[in-house]
Amino acid sequence: MRPALARFGSRLLEAAITLWLLATLCFVLLRAAPGGPFDSEKAAPPEVQAALEAQYRLDQPLPMQYLAWLGDAVRGDLGPSFQYPDYTVNQLIANALPVSMLNGGLALLLALLLGIGLGVWAALRAGRWTDRLLMGLAGLGLAVPKFVVAPLLVLVFAVGLHWLPAGGWGEWDNIVLPVIALALPNIAYCARLTRASLLETLSADYLTAARARGLSETRLLFAHALKPALLPVAAWLSPALINVVTGSAVVEQVFGIPGMGRYFVQGALNRDYTLVLGVVLAIGALIVAINVAVDALRAWMDPR
């Protein structure tokens, strides 16, 4: 019990240090970028400009701004948004995070289901034309970036066929194209990874011995080969999540989805310091939590 608690405490400390370094680096880079959140207000009277800077602590020295923001963030207060003055950053994230998690979760689930299924199917038909065709399509899926896939999906299924809406949020059919755009590269990578890992596992000595004992190929696959073959897929879940999170910025912009990625892009363009910092912290905390969960999953799947 004590080693487990020690490992848990060590993970918490690592997570806290990681988030602090991430927030500090983001704070420095934002303030080093040219321009400011109220550059468009230069035509306003000096007293109005001074009042705006005082309201958002921009009149203080940079170290004081950092310490004040960090103290509020530790208490869970991410401050007011510069771009959306009627909302706090906490409120914006509370509204946007479920949207992004729904899109990202469905995209990752679709990638796992289709990717593992297609990878297993290709491995069982290794060397045949169907296997080569599938792996060729997977390579194409990896090569095409999301900022190309998303507009193409809109052009084909919304503009051309009129099957699905081109954007918006609130109905089930608004989810389909964004989820597909986020999932396609991950489906391709998961299929290739599953195929390669399963082929290696099926050639292992212990499976050769199991075949000699008369076990059927179906039982070999599902009872002995599939679980160890999916260990690389479990290890891939962390970078897959990062891929979904980074891709959401493009996809949410294209489809007009009010998620974390869209707020991040708009906040960066408008120098909304508190909003960008809040989104970075929220996404960083989510990635740290997923990494811990993935490590636990890998430990459960690894027979060693």
From TrEMBL:
InterPro entries: MetI-like, MetI-like_sf. It is found in: Cell membrane. It comes from the Bacteria. The chain crosses the membrane at residues 12-33, 105-124, 136-163, 175-194, 229-255, 275-294. CDD domains: TM_PBP2. It is a multi-pass membrane protein. Keywords: Cell membrane, Membrane, Transmembrane, Transmembrane helix, Transport. Pfam families: BPD_transp_1 (PF00528). Its main location: membrane. Residues 97-298 form the ABC transmembrane type-1 domain. This is ABC transporter permease subunit. It comes from Lysobacter firmicutimachus. Belongs to the binding-protein-dependent transport system permease family.
